[in-house]
């Protein structure tokens, strides 16, 4: 059963542990003012897995920086400069 937050016209906020099918309370538990309204809070959503866009997490700039950092360093493992220019010997058979 979820916990719901309610707010009265006087500004009091109180919580109730109730079923989804239960009706809202008629009056405030603190000052007995009515009507009360349910306070809706945003929920946390975490997208996990490879089926989501890179922008869903907001880390696209960090990921691009990691990918471009090794190629800009110019070290021995940076692509073509580290490979030897050897060609297989052609056979005349």
Describe what you observe in this structure:
By secondary structure, the protein is of the alpha+beta class. The chain has one helix and three strands. The protein has a domain at about 5-40. Strand 1 (about 5) and strand 2 (about 15) form a beta hairpin. The chain is about 15% helix and about 15% strand.
Give me the count of strands: 3
Q: Strand share of the residues? A: 5-15%
Rg computed from alpha carbons, rounded to a whole number of angstroms: 31 Å
Total helical segments: 1
Mean pLDDT comes to 74
Distance between the termini: 82 Å
Uncertain runs are none
What profile does the largest beta sheet have?
A: 3 strands, antiparallel
- Share of helix among residues? 10-25%
Question: Secondary-structure element sequence?
Answer: EEEH
Could you say which structural class the secondary elements and strand pairing correspond to? alpha+beta
| Strand line-up of the largest beta sheet | 2-1-3
Shape: rod-shaped
What is the structure about, briefly put?
By secondary structure, the protein is α+β, with helices and mostly antiparallel strands. It is built from 1 helix and 3 strands.
Keywords:
1 helix; rod-shaped; 93 residues; 3 strands
List the helices and strands and how they pair.
Layout (H helix, E strand, L loop, with lengths): L2 E5 L5 E5 L19 E3 L20 H14 L20
Antiparallel strand pairs: 1-2, 1-3
